[in-house]
Amino acid sequence: MHSDPAEVKKSVRAYISVFVALMVFTVITVAASRFHFAVPIAIAIALVIAALKGSMVAGVFMHLSHEKRAIYGALLLTILFFIVLMFVPLLTNLDQIGVPR
Questions:
Q1: pLDDT tens-digit profile of 19-62?
Q2: Does any domain span residue 75?
Q3: pTM for this entry
Q4: The domain containing residue 85 runs over which residues?
Q5: Which of 19, 37, 71, 84 could make an S-S bridge to 67, C-beta 3.0–4.6 Å?
Q6: Residues 40, 79: contact at Cβ < 8 Å?
């Protein structure tokens, strides 16, 4: 834990700013839910908002912004596997096996 009052004040300021940002993104989420977007656009908007909120929580409240490179490596590996798994269904659409010529 931090014992220096300046460090504590800095940490509290970061927590409060992230809290305010999370509240702003919550209001944006509620406002976005009032609009009737097409399903793909609504999913994209929801994912962008959730990713921003999740990255703020992970970075500040879970102290990942101060951690070692191994944690960031694990996060990047997770993102890489997520992207690969998102593109696997696209590869099945490109498959021409069993399709008459």
A1: 999 999 999 999 999 999 999 999 999 999 999 999 888 888 87
A2: yes
A3: 0.62
A4: 5-94
A5: 71
A6: no
Q: Are 49 and 25 in contact (CB under 8 A)?
A: yes
Tokens of 7: 């460090």
Note whether residue 50 is domain-resident: yes
Residue 63 lies in a domain: yes
Residue corresponding to tokens 């021409």: 96
- Of 53, 45, 51, 44, nearest to 23 (Cα)? 53
Domain total in the chain: 1
**b (16+ CB within 10 A) / e for 56-74:** beeebeeeeeeeeeeeeee
Whether 22 contacts 53, CB under 8 Å: yes
